[in-house]
Amino acid sequence: METQRVEALASLRTLVQDEKDLFVGSPIDDNLLLQYLHYANFNVDEAFEKMKVVYSLKAQNSEWYAHRRDPAVHDVILKKGVHLMLDNRDQLGRRIYLLRLGNRNLVYGAHEPHEMFQVDDLWLSLALDEEETQKNGLVMIFDMEGMPWKFLRYFTPHIVRVTTTKAENIPVRNIQFHVVNPGLLLHTVIQLVFPFLSQATKEQVFFHKKLEGLHAHVSPSALPVEYGGERPALDPSSLAAKYLDARNNRIAELLSYGYNVTK
User: Fold this and answer.
1) DSSP 167-196
2) Gyration radius (Cα) of the chain, Å
3) Which residue among 56, 154, 157, 163 is least crowded, i.e. fewest CB within 10 A of its CB?
4) Residue 143 forms beta bridges with which residues?
């Protein structure tokens, strides 16, 4: 396996070196290459094609991606505790990413939708940088409790198309999406979002009116008490400090990668 790993890294590194205007570190970031190799089960060509797709999307939809951590925008949003990466893994070794879409601190119109999605990049870039996540995968939990109807105005065809395409191209082999506390908005959200999803993604989306449904996929031992779990209550400031602030330099590196589109 080690020989295969070394050979695959060398082959992918050569392809990246020859790809015009693609920057993934100087020297080339082997950990970034490993991320795509794990996604593709060490198929070099598949890994390279996924990398090109991801960074082409970033170039074509620049405002929907974070290129650096902007304290004036991103840190203000982070303080609201909407986006959170838990500091533990589930029973399968997967990272757990929580989006509390009905968070009372989230005021309609206070932030642009693309700014919210940029905050996801801060958390996810670090999670995908971890080889344990690359191997075991990721669980994303969307909590819709308290989400107001007026937020549906953000679900325009353009926004849904861009964001679902971005989500479907997260370069991790194993990913699940769980929607909890859906309430009356469930049917509307399905109608707005599902037409843009591939069949493969639809099969990894699960809706739970009761937390017991979530527990069938993610053990309560890995969840905070707010989600019927056995872990302490959420502390957004502590999670951000522990996960993001401690690795600011690495975030800056990862967010700088992509195609050079400057003319």
Assistant:
1) HHT-S-SSEEEEEES-GGGHHHHHHHHGGG
2) 18
3) 157
4) 100, 180
> 């490993």: which residue's tokens?
34
108 — pLDDT class (breaks 50, 70, 90): low
Angstrom distance (rounded) from CA 57 to CA 166: 7
Backbone angles phi, psi at 31, to 5 degrees: -70, -35
Cα separation, 162 vs 105, whole angstroms? 25
Strand order in the sheet with 95-100: 83-89, 95-100, 138-143, 175-180, 205-208
Of the candidates 133, 115, 117, the one whose C-alpha atom is nearest the C-alpha of residue 243 is 133
Look at residue 262 in the predicted model and tell me its pLDDT. 65
CA distances from 92 to 89, 122, 201 (A): 8, 23, 20
> To the nearest whole number, what is the mean pLDDT of the chain?
94
How many angstroms separate the CA atoms of 45 and 68, rounded?
29
Decide if 12 contacts 171 (C-beta within 8 A).
no
Could you say which DSSP state residue 23 is in?
Answer: E
What tokens appear for 108 in the block? 């309609």
Could you tell me whether strands 83-89 and 95-100 are parallel, antiparallel, or unpaired per DSSP bridges?
antiparallel
Cβ(170)–Cβ(128) below 8 Å: yes
- Assess whether pLDDT exceeds 70 at residue 263: no
What pTM value is reported for the model?
A: 0.94
Distance between CA atoms of 67 and 79, rounded to whole angstroms?
20
CB-based contact 102:147 (threshold 8 Å): yes
Q: pLDDT tens-digit profile of 207-258?
A: 999 999 999 999 999 999 999 999 999 999 999 999 999 999 999 999 999 9
Cβ-based neighbour number of residue 188 at 10 Å: 13
